[in-house]
Amino acid sequence: MGLAQSTVSEHLRILKDAGIVMGTIDYPRVCYSLDPSALAPIGALIKAIAVGCMVKEASAKKPADEAPEFLVPGTEPMTTA
Questions:
Q1: Which neighbouring-strand residues pair with 23?
Q2: CB 42 within 8 A of CB 48
Q3: Taken in order 38, 40, 45, 46, is the CA torsion positive or negative?
Q4: CB neighbours of 23 closer than 8 A, spacing ≥ 6?
Q5: What is each CA distance from 23 to 3, 33, 40, in whole angstroms?
Q6: In which element (H, E) is residue 53 found?
Q7: Most buried one in 12, 14, 55, 71, CB count within 10 A?
Q8: d(CA 53, CA 42)
Q9: 19: closest CA among 3, 2, 36?
Q10: Partners of 34 in the beta sheet?
Q11: What separation, in Å, do the N-terminal and C-terminal C-alpha atoms of the chain show?
């Protein structure tokens, strides 16, 4: 990774203290893994954003007869005969 071992260890310690990763001691190593329960709120946020985007996209795809009219000031709406 191009990072000093002490740098990686410090960042992993911070993530562990924050509850984002779990560390299992397997002397002389520590094996780190993501804590799924810590990632659940992030997953919920991503899902909420995705749902919001889908709703916005669906409302933008209304049929032409439901689309709002945009008029140039001083003109009349066009009608079809």
A1: 32
A2: no
A3: positive
A4: 12, 16, 30, 31, 32
A5: 20, 7, 19
A6: helix 36-60
A7: 12
A8: 17
A9: 36
A10: 21
A11: 70
Q: Model-level pTM greater than 0.70? A: no
Amino acid of residue 79: T
Q: What is the pLDDT of residue 72?
A: 52
**Residue-range domain boundaries for the chain:** 11-63
pLDDT value at position 22?
Answer: 92
Which run of H or of E encompasses 31? strand 29-34
**pLDDT per residue as tens, the chain (81 positions):** 688 989 998 999 999 999 999 988 888 888 999 998 888 888 888 888 888 877 766 666 665 555 555 555 555 655 554
Chain centre distance of CA 50: 7
